[in-house]
Amino acid sequence: MFFDPIYLLFVGPFFLLGLYAQWRIKSTFTEMSKIPAEMSGAQAARVMLDSAGLHSVQIEPIGGRLSDHYDPRGKVLRLSPEVYGQRSMAAVGVACHEAGHAMQDAQRYAPLVIRNAAVPTANIGSNVGIWMFIIGMFMQQPLLQWLGIIAFAAVVFFQVINLPVEFDASARAKRQLVAQGIISDYESQYVSKVLNAAALTYVAATLQAIATLAYLIFRASDRR
Questions:
Q1: TM spans, by residue (predicted)?
Q2: Is 122 helix (H, G, I), strand (E, B) or coil?
Q3: Separation between Cα atoms, residue 173 and residue 45, nearest integer Å
Q4: What is the rounded average pLDDT of the residues 84-101?
Q5: For range 84-102, the mean pLDDT
Q6: Full DSSP string of 60-104
């Protein structure tokens, strides 16, 4: 399937967009890491969490580059070394974006609740759906192909519902960074560059998933 020229027509442009998005987030993060902030990422996230009454949410360092995330099960914000202890616009932007997810969790933000519930199904769809389709194609079993398509559709659903979750977390971060005096109105442009670059990675992943689903449907419907 991956050597099918038709597959490249469907997915290729969005795969390239994904590569560009990954390059852009890394280069933008590096650029904005050179612009100082008055607080480290961990300090900024703590201010944002405390302002929302989320004193029980812990902030921990974690290894890896741009491995920052919020764990809704443990109620823990985990920040990479470049974010946790660094005082830069990139660090406070990424840290407060993740703090935005903690606020969403506390407020039972509907898209986040739906996204979290969809994770197990999306994981199954990602790992099993494509293989079901490939096996069905080689065994000439249309039913198995369509079952694979249905399974992979869960991945598309997850990616689509993930967009408002990520965009909302970034919007919360931008508002709170200024409202809490962590950065100035003028400095918000630097944070926006980092968060907008991150947003492009989410958009690229969603478009790639949709294009892959479209390809699978096209192949399953092709009787030639």
A1: 6-23, 143-161, 194-218
A2: helix
A3: 9
A4: 97
A5: 97
A6: EE-SSSS--EEETTTTEEEE-HHHHS--BHHHHHHHHHHHHHHHH
CA distance 182 to 47: 8
Helices (runs of H) and strands (runs of E) counted in the chain: 8, 3
Q: Look at the block and give the residue holding tokens 């650029």.
A: 31
Per residue in 143-180, is it b (16+ CB within 10 Å) or e — as a string? ebbbbbbebbbbbbbbbebbbebbbbbbebbbebbbee
**H-assigned helices in 107-141:** 110-124, 130-138
pTM of the model: 0.90
How is the chain split into domains, by residue range?
Answer: 5-221
Average per-residue pLDDT for the chain: 94
Which entry of 31, 60, 98, 166 is annotated as an active-site residue?
98
Cα-to-chain-centroid distance, residue 138: 34
- How many Å separate Cα 62 from the centre of its chain? 18
127 or 169, which is more confident: 169
Tell me what percent of the residues of the chain surpass a pLDDT of 70: 98
CA distance 125 to 139: 20
Q: Is 98 a catalytic residue?
A: yes
Rg (CA), the chain: 20
Place of tokens 């612009």: 35
Q: What value does the mean pLDDT take over residues 56-62?
A: 96
